[in-house]
From TrEMBL:
The keyword Transferase applies. The keyword Transferase applies. Pfam families: Sulfotransfer_1. The lineage of its organism: Eukaryota, Metazoa, Echinodermata, Eleutherozoa, Echinozoa. It comes from Strongylocentrotus purpuratus (Purple sea urchin). Belongs to the sulfotransferase 1 family. Keywords: Transferase. SUPFAM superfamilies: P-loop containing nucleoside triphosphate hydrolases. GO terms for molecular function: sulfotransferase activity. Residues 44-135 form the Sulfotransferase domain. Coiled coil: none annotated. This is Sulfotransferase domain-containing protein. It comes from the Eukaryota.
Length: 154
């Protein structure tokens, strides 16, 4: 067991992750972003797409972009999805996460309305969307892409 983890983890996890509040987090989601995410300024017209990894996130984001642009795909041509819908907790340079620019910075500078993406669990999301009086309108939509794929094999 590594001193950085509260339980036994494989060597590949020790090399590529850290533990924060009992949750194993990949190094490409640095602690400085995780802490900053809690104070991220939420706007009333923000739309957050928050999903488990590999559960249809990109598909959902594409749908949201098409809705935002009234189905006009020509407005999306030539633009990379990560620039239009930033993945808040990921760094720009995944090979050098400790010195990389943060995508959350780009998100804060975006014009409204924003579509924002995250795989964080609720306790790590911005405080403004986890209170009884959220600044952003929170609508829960469950997205599942073959849910059995999200469960560890038995």
């Amino acid at each position: 067991m590594s001193a950085r983890f509260s339980s036994n983890v494989p060597a590949c996890v020790v090399e590529t992750c850290y533990e924060h509040e009992g949750v194993i987090v990949p190094n490409i989601m640095p602690l400085k972003v995780l802490k900053r995410m809690r104070s991220f300024t939420v706007r009333p017209d923000d739309l957050f797409v928050v999903t488990y990894p590999k559960s249809g996130t990109t598909w959902a984001v594409h749908l949201m972009l098409l809705i935002k642009h009234d189905g006009n795909r020509s407005e999306l041509e030539g633009k990379h999805i990560i620039k239009m819908v930033p993945f808040l907790e990921i760094v720009e340079d995944m090979l050098n996460p400790s010195t990389s620019a943060l995508r959350i910075d780009a998100a804060e500078a975006m014009a409204s309305p924003r579509i924002l993406k995250s795989h964080y669990i609720p306790p790590f999301l911005p405080m403004d969307i986890s209170t009884n009086d959220p600044k952003a309108k929170v609508h829960e939509t469950n997205i599942m892409n073959q849910p059995r794929g999200l469960q560890p094999p038995i």
